[in-house]
Amino acid sequence: MTFLALSPLQTALLALITTSIIVGLYLLKLRHRRVLISSSILWRRVLDERQMHSLWEKLRRIISIIVTATIALLIAMSLARPEIESLTGKNERVVIVLDTSPTMNAHTSDGTTRWQHAVERAKSLLDSGGPTTEFRVLDTAGATASAFTTDRNEARRLIDTMSPKSADPQFPRVDGRNAQVYFVSDGVAIHNTPSFVRRVSVFESANNVGITAFEIRSIPSTPLGYEAYLEVQNFGQPTETAITLSGAGGQRILKTVRLGTEETYKDVFDLSQFSGGGIRATVQAKDDALPLDDVAFAYLPLKRKTRTLLVTKGNHYLETVLKLDTYVELAVIDPANYRESPNIDAYIFDRFAPAVPPSRPALIFGTPNASWLKPPAGEIQKPEITTWSEDHPIMQFVSVHDVAIERAARIDAQNLTVVAASKQTPLIVVSEKPKWVMLTFDLESSDFAFHVGFPVFIENVLGWFNRDQLALKRSPGLVDVPLARAQIRTIDGKTVSSEQQLGKTVFVANEPGLFDGTQGDTRIHVAVNLANPAFSDLNRSVFKTDRGAASQHYWLRRELWFYMLIAAALLMGAEWFTYHRRITL
Amino acid sequence: MSTANVTIFDDEFLKKLEYLNIISKRLFAGQLRADRRTRKRGTGLEFADYRAYVAGDDFRHLDWKAYLRLNRLILKLFEEEEDLPIYFFVDSSQSMSYGTPSKLDYARRVAAALCYIGLANLDRVNVISFADGVKNEMPPQRGKGRIFKIFRFLNDITPGGETSARASFKTYCTETRRRGLAVVISDMFDGNGFESALDILRHFRHDIFVIHIASHEEIDPLLRGELLLVDSENNATREITITPSLLTAYRAEFAKYCEAIESYCGRYQLGYVRTATDFPFDELVLKVFRQGRFLK
Hints:
The structure holds two protein chains of two kinds.
Chain A: E1 2-3, H1 8-27, E2 33-37, H2 41-53, H3 55-79, E3 82-83, H4 85-88, E4 93-98, H5 114-127, E5 134-139, H6 152-161, E6 180-185, E7 197-201, E8 209-219, E9 222-234, E10 239-247, E11 252-259, E12 264-270, E13 277-285, E14 295-300, E15 306-311, H7 316-324, E16 328-333, E17 346-350, E18 362-365, E19 379-381, E20 387-388, E21 407-409, E22 417-421, E23 426-431, E24 436-439, H8 453-466, E25 472-474, E26 477-481, E27 487-490, E28 495-496, E29 498-501, E30 504-509, E31 513-519, E32 522-528, H9 533-536, H10 560-580
Parallel strand pairs in A: 4-5, 4-6, 6-7, 15-16, 15-17, 17-18, 18-24, 25-32
Antiparallel strand pairs in A: 1-3, 8-9, 9-12, 10-11, 10-13, 13-14, 19-21, 20-22, 22-23, 23-24, 26-30, 27-28, 27-31, 29-30, 31-32
Chain B: H1 11-18, E1 33-52, H2 64-70, E2 74-82, E3 85-91, H3 103-120, E4 124-130, E5 134-141, H4 147-155, H5 165-175, E6 181-186, H6 194-203, E7 207-214, H7 216-219, E8 225-231, E9 237-242, H8 244-267, E10 271-276, H9 281-291
Parallel strand pairs in B: 3-4, 3-6, 6-7, 7-10
Antiparallel strand pairs in B: 1-2, 4-5, 8-9
Helix pairs in contact in B: 3-4, 5-6
């Protein structure tokens, strides 16, 4: 017997003190009530005779104190939380890690899924072990991590709330020195586990044909043309596979191919007949076990050039860059001739700004005086770009760390987003509403126009202004959108609950789909696709067999102290019953 | 009865008692004439026997008809009717103070009633209170007019001391040789056993009648729980936990104790009546004594 709450010495002391107290109290119990009787002759005869002839009469005087001391000892010892390994098992900690990777959604031959098998095995593990065993439940998505608990029901409830979702599964960090770690998995998505982990396999071989890649990309030879690249792979028996691409306008491409085992089908589809919007690719094959990779989404941008008005007294670098941009339909005017036009999608002001802000987005070079812009408060000589935000859409793929600037205006960037700055002043600021971007230096006083990132910057700015973009690629699970407070909708227009985290909007997508993230005038498309051969290959398991997953069942389902208290209560009842009937004294 | 009230019974009850006669199984010689026949030959009316005339006999008792037939002087003997000595031994040990009413009060009533009956029949009544010895005794009384003295004597008896009936009876009997009816009124709790005490009375050839008084608290004790029993006579204590089985055992022991006394009395043809203090007193005197052939 061992004790979980006290040391053996403390337990022995507790038992000694308890027994001493009980015996002391027994000796100091209330005095007998004095009763005067006429003569004790008959009572003496009765008592002498009973004591003489009955062993029970001799014993029962000490039975009460023994029972009372036993009750007290049971209660006191229960505080020490004793355990007997043969009855309750020893106190141990068990960590159950459930694989929540998408492959756990694969169907099995009995009509259920690997995940359902995993839940059963996990609950079976909960049923094993002794009552003092503490359980902890984790998943590979990092979404579930309970504390150690002996409450099996709580652990069961937690398991019931879990589901396979993450396309980025990782084995959680667990300490295997003080706990038995079980990993319930099909062994497909996670191959490397610590050596102390005991595998509980729910693997079963399955046929699967899945989309392993799907994207829409520009056609180099056609500036506004797009094509779809699709990759389908068969991870099971040879089968006929039907491939379908369908667009938002009802356009459809159908194709049937026969795929052998491990054979990959790659094809490029011309989308010139498709109007803009969501594109859905599906594959259909016999005995397909994993539906998640049978569908993939992409977004086909609307095909239109950006009508851009450059207002400048003459800027060779800007004009050259914009004229070379195939997505720009450029017009150049002098500031003196500037008038706002409804046929313009974006303005570029070079060292000029109109008195009133334009109704369309604008890119401003220099810090011209205008009431709707921040007025300059001085000039900084040779500022160095020390910080810039690569996360902002206009700074993607733009390197500005070596841009040399001769001078820049000092401005107050309050209520503006600073995407690049020196220690002294902001250098590139962004206003979300109205939408404009301003460089506090002009191209004449810097070498920014000579950097390779400059055309990219211009393209990013115009794209951020109003150009339709390809969808961001994400995997199922926790999906992030690079907008601080975006509203997320499905392609059908249904709102998806989301959270703001670290300047991004995050939402959960357990299945492939196309989502829109909208914040003000900014709209971002997000294509969530499994499209990963690592998940589609359901037979690539390293968990072909269980290893060390045997569990042991014990007679007692709760800790020993529970039964000790019950025994104490029963003894109390028995003592009360026998005492009031004078069976015991 | 501990008060100084000498009128223990009402007048109606006393009148009932006058009609009762004490029956004695044996005939005893008395010192004075009374209504009881004795073996003593004397001047009574009822013929008893003949014997040969000797000088000095009363001529009036010669049977002349027998002289004519037998030519011998034969004297007629008559039974002389004399008074009966009745000794009332009233147990006044401390144990007799037990019960509600106390056993001593009940014993006083019984003794007073029997004394009255004895006085009414011109018997010589002696009342002796005893415990561990003879505590007090009343000189022989005769005639109904003495009843108030007896009442006062009984009233003055106070409980105290342990019971030692053998020593008490031995002391009294050796001092008073005259045999009579010995009525023992006691709870019969004697540590040395009552049999040896009654043996003393038998030895002195008294006619014995035992009136065993028990209180209902002794017959069916209402004790519960953890108790320290204190013996009223010697203050001996005993810790005890009353259980139903223990009470049952006590009742059985009490019955056994009473049965032993009754058995003893039956074996030696002693009168025995057992009563409880809650038993109606007049019923005891008028019915139980009659059933016990103590009264007629």
